[in-house]
Specification:
The protein is mainly alpha-helical. The protein is built from four helices and no strands.
């Protein structure tokens, strides 16, 4: 138990760094998503590559917002693939189940 304060301090530092990384991801992906949507892109490879990158950061509300926007855009192009991305989000971030 002597190491608890150090562990707590280390955990808080790690959480702060993760929050910074999430903010950077949102800032970097936002113009990419905006461009894809504004251009009406139908490039499945590029859209899926972007969704793959965003998925890791969907625990951050601004990133989740742009992930959802891109999913809505992609739905008209490939509804099956979009459903896979929606389910991937749910499995990774939105599960009520307690995982072992």
């Amino acid at each position: 138990m002597n190491d608890y304060p150090a562990l707590q301090k280390s955990t808080h530092a790690l959480a702060r760094e993760l929050q910074k990384l999430q903010a950077v991801a949102a800032a970097q992906y936002t113009p990419v998503v905006e461009t894809l949507i504004a251009a009406g892109s139908r490039d499945s490879r590029q859209i899926e590559q972007t969704l793959d990158g965003l998925l890791d950061f969907c625990g951050h509300a601004p990133t989740l917002h742009i992930y959802r926007r891109l999913c809505r855009h992609y739905f008209d192009i490939d509804p099956v693939a979009t459903a896979i991305y929606i389910n991937a989000y749910r499995e990774m971030w939105d599960s009520d189940e307690v995982k072992p």
